[in-house]
Amino acid sequence: MENYIASQRDQIFRNVEVLIYVFDVESREFDRDIHYYQSCLDALIQHSKDARVFCLVHKMDLVPENQREQIFFDREQDLKRRSHPLKTVSFGTSIWDETLYKAWSAIVTSLIPNVQVLETNLNAFCQHCDADEVILFERTTFLVISHATRRNLGDIHRFEKVSNIIKQFKLSCSKSQAQFQTMEVCTPKFSAFLQGLTSNTYVMVIVSDPTICKYNQTTRY
């Protein structure tokens, strides 16, 4: 890494929009990690001073549960102090729960221009469809870009679960040499409809109205 920072500094750090730096919360070489991190920040200040900086404090599952909140808070404050004058956003993450998915979704959302306009239109679409919830996914990763919710659906981990289900279904389609295009799930309690919206996004509409059985009934809105 030292070689990249020293010899290829101009090429790597010029015109950077985002830096995502991953820290191992149990690293035994924290001083070295910070040295590399601050070297990256120095290069950003020189070549891409408007870049956004995100830090993932990873492997939080290895920290005792009753200590996680405090340890993450301490690390977050330390990174903010060391990152000045650049502003940072930190996330505590683990591969064993929803935190990593939520962090990447938040990062993707932050990169979207005019995201407030998108959210306003998504809320209007949700209202017109009389939907319980509308979710906008990035097409390749199925990270959540934005969502509009009109009723409490209870499960705070539902986005990650839905994303994993869709990705597994897409994988099954590819194994059978079928192309994934859309998905429809109808149950006595709800219906969910997934369809491509743009070349880069999918939209999912969830409704609990039992009379709504076809997504195309809502597309006129």
From TrEMBL:
Domain of life: Eukaryota
BP-aspect Gene Ontology terms: cellular response to starvation; negative regulation of autophagy; positive regulation of TORC1 signaling
Primary location: cytoplasm
Presence of the UniProt keyword GTP-binding in the record: yes
Subcellular location: Cytoplasm
Keyword Cytoplasm: yes
Keywords of the record: Cytoplasm, GTP-binding, Nucleotide-binding
GO molecular function: GTP binding; GTPase activity
Subunit comment: Component of the GSE complex.
Similarity comment text for this entry: Belongs to the GTR/RAG GTP-binding protein family.
Name of the protein in question: GTP-binding protein
Protein's organism: Batrachochytrium dendrobatidis (strain JEL423)
